[in-house]
Write a structure and sequence with these properties.
42% helix; 22% strand; alpha+beta; Jelly Rolls; 5-stranded mixed β-sheet; Arc Repressor Mutant, subunit A; 2 domains
Length: 277
Amino acid sequence: MIKFSNPTYSAGIELLAGHFHEGSSYRIVRRDGVGDWLLIATVSGKGRFAYTGGELITEPGDWVLIRPGTPHGYGVESSLKRWELLWVHFQPRPHWLPWLDWPAISPGLFKLAIQDGNTMGRFHEVYRLFTGDLRRSEAFAMNSLEALLLECDRQNPLAAMSSYDQRIRRAMDYIERNLARKVTVADIATAVGLSTSRIAHLFRNQSGQTPQQHLEGLRMQRATELLKRTGLSIKLIADSVGFDSQFYFSQRFKARTGQSPRDFRSSAKSRTDAGSP
């Protein structure tokens, strides 16, 4: 069974985690990549990753990281017919980006070999916290993911030679501080002392997204939190995340999450009333 995935299906949240035990029919194809970072660790069995120009077979202890917008597919390696994997989709905090500079298999697809069982245990902890019944389960899981990525960075042979440009982190910090106001690429470029063409190139090269895509993703994350945690009107929420028009905000929100803001709030309330995390 081949599943074709919408690249923005998880764009409204910070993190989504899972632990799968899959058989030979499992296939995912993402011709346009996804709108966030994806980390997959092979726990047992073997996985097969397809990318432009080749394929990668993963065994237990192989960790694969995929940057936003990178075309890819993955599934169970055909000769073994089973694959146990831990996975997490996430939107990185700005200071995480240097930790994501892993050895490249191809543009946008990276791999580390980590045989340390304690590190895999940290990944299990991310999943446990995300699916648990804590009131702030996603926030706890994000903190656990930060610790996991730090541990991966400690075992990354390229960490001491990272080519990550700190101006991109400053650009992301600037974006995050200005979600409620109109922000252009020229504003971001001025804030970090680069030309608009240079910031656009560096940002896309190192984050996998354009500055405007990153800005909208953060705005939608903030909006989902406000819809879940507050009783603010949709108009006030739209204003607080930089949209002059409630109608346009609702259009963009539905395009990225699959639900209108009103429906999202209702479904989130239903899950809370039912005791779901």
